[in-house]
Amino acid sequence: GPVTPDSNDWSFTGDYGFARRSEDGVRQVSLTGGGHFCFEGFGVYGTFGTATSRVVGGDFGARQIILDAAPEPLTNLVGEHLRIENHTRSSTYRILSANKCAEGVSLHVDIDIRIGEGTADGFEDGIIISHTHFPLAGFRYYHGARLVTPCGDVLTLDHIQPDAVANIESGLRPLSRIAVKAVNGERPDTGRLQAALEKGDSFTIFDLGVGDTGTITMTSYIRSTEPGRFEARIGPETTLALGKGLEGTARISQNGLDRDVLIIEQNGMSTLNLAETGLGNVLITL
Fold first, then answer.
1. pTM, 2 dp
2. Each residue of 61-93: pLDDT tens digit?
3. CB neighbours (10 Å) of residue 284?
4. Is residue 45 over pLDDT 90?
5. Contacts of 29 (CB under 8 A, 6+ apart)
6. Domain ranges of the chain
7. CA-CA distance, 106 to 108, in Å (whole number)?
8. What is the distance between the alpha carbons of residues 35 and 29, in angstroms, rounded to a whole number?
9. What's the pLDDT tens digit per position in 271-285?
């Protein structure tokens, strides 16, 4: 029959979950982000599901982002998605590799972090004038992006206003007015801009910068493959529910290593605390 909040056969706290059942019972329960989702005593009893950190550096031109921390084991972050945001913009990248480094955790992502390149061809207070055409200027696309100069100075952009576009017949050159974001209520004057950029210098605009927030939102799930055997993917600090009335231990297999975990009764459900197992795929055998 239909599943409703009054049916007393499921419990949920979180943002998004999915459950699948057959005539034999519940086959799979998934939960994206943190919270709890159990269906007929089976599912994700609890998980944080979201890891938040801070961008502390990186070689953005090479699609490298360094975070101050990330959940272990790092190899299991490959394939997850990293959301980078500040109070004006956000973007999402797929993680291709993750390794420890002196500053924290180095991630290599799938999409180019560069969103623009140009030349500084003039200056006004708070404005860099460029004869570069920026296709998305005027749509707030560059709001909060970082302009990096050849000497490494970083300027946060407010917007780019297109004043003219190139015209082959007339010989008209494109003209863009790049507005630099004010700091403590004051935009940098012409002298400050000229100290960071000489006329004719090239610059690069990046989608993110140091100080931005990085968030990895993970999906945890448990799936019944046959009686007494389960596949699962878990986030940090995850506890799974295997059903009701189970006792003893369950064999946990991950990355070629096996260990036994005690089954604990909680709120009428038989649960496994996998907090020490860490992020990744596991096989469970009763």
1. 0.85
2. 999 999 999 998 899 999 999 999 999 999 999
3. 23
4. yes
5. 17, 18, 19, 20, 37, 38, 39, 42, 43, 44, 221, 222
6. 10-49+218-285, 51-217
7. 7
8. 13
9. 999 998 888 899 999
